């Protein structure tokens, strides 16, 4: 099932090639069906973080470190966008321009049958989403650290890490969840559930407190009887 977004319009088109469907039908022998893809899904992004943290120890040249980090981030962006997402979780996204010059963002999600769900690798899915979410968070932390420590020369490199890895994160969330209206509805539903849960907890607390505290004696403040 493919979700193609262009000005909030969705369109269903075919997904993946026939070779992909054949590869899905193959029986699962190992927990990690694509070990090479799983390795490179984490290799480039973790290597970029390690080089950034140890750049001052590895080399005294800022240009060499910057070029190395940018190359690793670029390789990671291409690998995650075009290979690991399709193989590990069945998701894919890209942008194309039609004959009228209009830009279209395409978000694909493979619709799996019950048999394919049983043979899918849960370990690969966890590796994919863990690497996809945790590394952009690290680059956001590096951005604030470079800003507050006045290391402005590293700020451009860190921002590139945030942009490239954040783009993949956003694209795959759109593939997984759907279009912008679905994201909004999910956020609204989550906030509504949280509000209802808080109200129920508050009601229970009030009921417990009411049971514990004795009722006030309404006759205690009345003057004594004249009789």
UniProtKB/TrEMBL annotation:
This protein's superkingdom? Eukaryota
Is Transmembrane helix tagged as a keyword?
yes
Compositionally biased spans, kind Basic and acidic residues: 206-215
Compositionally biased spans, kind Polar residues: 217-227
- What is one GO cellular-component annotation here? membrane
What does the UniProt keyword field contain? Membrane, Transmembrane, Transmembrane helix
Q: How does it sit in the membrane?
A: Multi-pass membrane protein
Name its cellular compartments: Membrane
Asked whether the keyword Membrane is assigned, the reply is yes
Principal location: membrane
Q: Which residues cross the membrane?
A: 35-54, 60-80, 127-148, 154-173
Report residue spans for region: Disordered: 206-227
Q: Mention any Pfam family matching this sequence.
A: DUF846
Q: Which family does it belong to?
A: Belongs to the TVP23 family.
Name of the protein in its database record: Golgi apparatus membrane protein TVP23 homolog
* Originating species: Monodelphis domestica (Gray short-tailed opossum)
Q: Output the lineage of the source organism.
A: Eukaryota, Metazoa, Chordata, Craniata, Vertebrata
């Amino acid at each position: 099932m493919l979700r193609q977004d262009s000005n909030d319009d969705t369109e269903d088109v075919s997904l993946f090639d026939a070779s992909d469907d054949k590869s899905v039908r193959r029986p699962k022998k190992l927990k990690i069906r694509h070990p090479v893809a799983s390795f490179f899904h984490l290799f480039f992004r973790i290597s970029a973080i390690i080089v950034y943290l140890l750049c001052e120890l590895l080399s005294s040249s800022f240009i060499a470190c910057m070029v190395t980090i940018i190359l690793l981030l670029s390789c990671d962006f291409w690998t995650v966008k075009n290979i690991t997402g399709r193989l590990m979780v069945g998701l894919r996204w890209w942008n194309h321009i039609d004959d009228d010059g209009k830009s279209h963002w395409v978000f694909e999600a493979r619709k799996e049958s019950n048999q394919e769900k049983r043979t899918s690798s849960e370990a690969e899915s966890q590796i994919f989403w863990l690497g996809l979410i945790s590394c952009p968070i690290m680059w956001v932390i590096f951005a604030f650290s470079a800003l507050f420590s006045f290391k402005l020369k590293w700020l451009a490199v860190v921002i590139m890490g945030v942009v490239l890895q954040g783009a993949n994160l956003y694209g795959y969330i759109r593939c997984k969840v759907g279009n912008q209206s679905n994201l909004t509805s999910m956020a609204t539903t989550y906030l509504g559930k949280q509000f209802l849960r808080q109200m129920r907890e508050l009601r229970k607390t009030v009921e417990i407190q009411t049971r514990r505290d004795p009722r006030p004696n309404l006759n205690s403040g009345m003057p004594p009887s004249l009789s």
